[in-house]
């Protein structure tokens, strides 16, 4: 299937083509949603913020001059909003790697009480923990890590999105990578035998605390399954396993049709 040219769609939308605008939004909403979700680790907040960002994209569309790829420009708009406008949640404000590690370890059961191999719930826990972990980074380091190690954007694009120097970007990415890698090795049983927390030992407490949804989330429907991720982790060298676990969340597609919703909002405003 041939993907639509976003730059052409943006140009047509700027000229008043409503169909082009709807198609444009439909083709960037998952990109924006995935970034918001990885930054915030809260599906409800991420959905609201995604809509806010898409509205900003629409209202700022006339400022897009084609100096960069449209995807890069969208990420820049989204990143600016996430870094400067979105309020920090209580969980985000209070979380650190030490606090997160202590919370995980306090909720572990012994080998005889661990959860059965319910791979769907274990996968929900794995993905939720993977995303919550990044809240231990401040936002500047978190966004550098997400763009560089999770989304695997090249340095040039990441620097253009963040509007910072290459040296500063490399420093932030390096510091964030070191912290995530060290924490994963120390605390995550998927990453190696020395990891204190394993999903089966953590699942009973996570269910009791409401940190795992009672039914599988549609967000994770296309995510790699627990067994394949565990196998991948066991066969990945230690220096790379943290980043690979962070990438193993699947596409995290938006569950809302933002294109239709924004068309309704724009219609009401006219």
Describe what this molecule looks like in 3D.
Helix 2 (18-40) packs antiparallel against helix 3, helix 2 crosses helix 4 and helix 10 (166-187) packs across helix 13 (238-247). The model has no long low-confidence stretch (mean pLDDT 91). The chain is built from 14 helices and no strands. It has helices at 6-14, 18-40, 43-59, 70-84, 90-94, 97-106, 119-133, 139-150, 155-162, 166-187, 199-208, 226-234, 238-247, 258-269.
Structural features:
globular, 270 residues, mainly alpha
What would you report as the Rg, rounded to the nearest angstrom? 20 Å
User: Helix count?
Assistant: 14
Mean pLDDT metric: 91
From the helix content, strand content and strand pairing, which structural class follows? mainly alpha
SSE order in H/E notation? Answer: HHHHHHHHHHHHHH
Helix content: 55-70%
Strand content: under 5%
Question: How far apart lie the N and C ends?
Answer: 35 Å
Count of extended strands:
0
Q: Detail the poorly predicted runs.
A: none
Q: What general outline do the C-alpha atoms trace?
A: globular
Major sheet details: none
């Amino acid at each position: 299937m041939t993907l639509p040219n976003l730059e052409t769609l943006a140009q047509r939308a700027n000229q008043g083509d409503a169909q082009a605008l709807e198609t444009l939004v439909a083709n960037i909403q998952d990109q924006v949603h995935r970034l918001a979700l990885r930054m915030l680790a809260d599906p409800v907040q991420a959905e609201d913020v995604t809509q806010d960002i898409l509205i900003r994209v629409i209202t700022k569309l006339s400022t897009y001059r084609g100096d960069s790829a449209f995807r890069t420009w969208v990420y820049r708009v989204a990143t600016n909003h996430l870094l400067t406008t979105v309020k920090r949640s209580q969980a985000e404000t209070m979380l650190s790697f030490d606090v997160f590690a202590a919370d995980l370890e306090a909720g572990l059961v012994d080998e005889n009480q661990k959860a059965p191999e319910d791979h769907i719930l274990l996968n929900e826990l794995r993905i939720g923990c993977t995303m919550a972990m990044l809240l231990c980074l401040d936002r500047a380091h978190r966004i550098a890590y997400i763009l560089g190690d999770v989304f695997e954007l090249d340095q040039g694009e990441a620097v253009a999105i963040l509007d910072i120097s290459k040296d500063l970007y490399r420093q932030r990415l390096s510091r964030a990578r070191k912290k995530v890698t060290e924490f994963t090795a120390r605390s995550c049983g998927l990453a190696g035998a020395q990891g204190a927390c394993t999903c089966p030992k953590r699942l009973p407490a996570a269910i009791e605390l409401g940190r795992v949804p009672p039914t599988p989330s549609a967000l994770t429907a296309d995510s790699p399954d627990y067994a394949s991720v565990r196998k991948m982790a066991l066969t990945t060298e230690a220096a790379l396993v943290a980043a690979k676990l962070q990438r193993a969340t699947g596409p995290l597609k938006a569950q809302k049709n933002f294109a239709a919703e924004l068309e309704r909002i724009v219609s009401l405003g006219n």
